[in-house]
Amino acid sequence: MKAIRYHSYGDSRVLALEETDRPTAGPGQVVVKVAGTSFNLLDAAIRVGIMQEAMPIDFPHTPGVDVSGTIAETGEGVTGWSTGDPVIAFLPPTAPGAAAEYVAVPADLLAAAPATVPLPDAAALPTVGLTARQALFDHLDLKPGQRLLINGAGGAVGGYAIQLAKRAGAHVTATASPRSLDRVKAAGADRIVDYTAEPVVKTLAGEHFDAVLQLVRDTPEETAALADLAADGGAFTSTTIPGPQTARIRVEHVYVANDPARLADLVALVDAGELRIDVAERLPLADLPSVHDRAVEGRLLGKTVLTP
């Protein structure tokens, strides 16, 4: 089979499309014929080696933590899943990933794929959808009627966060650049702040929010200033730079956890028409090195799906 692999840490030039053996299903595993995978910044962080202590990998390594596809083989002890079932999953980051024609997946990580979107596009849901859900409800404990500020809402996590927050009855203020304005508006933000016009904390000076979600890799000082926009007794969480330690508000940090039950909940929302999967770009797997480059340069807009 064909797979994107790298044999050492490095820049995007280490990524190569190679021929390798198709995986087999071990006990408790299935083999998925990949319909789509999607790029996440975590893939690039692992590739350059900055995550090697927390997430050590074996070489050669195939990236891609998101997968959508159909089950091609089931291993010993697998129940509830059959060959031909359309599925999605958030894969363990250190395991061989889905930037390939086939990937072995622990069966207990699977969720049924949404039936209302093309199967390749479903790969745009697992990692960022779970991140948004966990940030809002596990960390910020968002409630109906609360005022939420999402800083950096133009990306994939931001798009899901806006939709989920609005569905929960929150009032959403989202910051975005002009290039992502239409996506943020389509996601349902009540108010959009252009962070390129002036600093967000200046635009929102004097305002306070029940919950603040930081999705931008700002400096610690900028992140602390953003946290100051949380009301007394409010909450702040970040997917990037940890927030300041203060007794005035609750401060947490988001490390996305694999949760197939909650992933299935997100799929149900998609199929009910209450959550939209937004794919900015669809590319062949061979284009993955250029996607890594564009992401590092800040030129990747929204979610990119790659197909074998």
Automatic annotation (TrEMBL):
UniProt GO MF annotations: oxidoreductase activity
A Pfam family recorded for this sequence: ADH_zinc_N_2
Chain ranges of the Enoyl reductase (ER) domain: 10-306
Protein name (database record): NADPH:quinone reductase-like Zn-dependent oxidoreductase
Species this protein is from: Glycomyces artemisiae
Upper classification of the organism: Bacteria, Bacillati, Actinomycetota, Actinomycetes, Glycomycetales
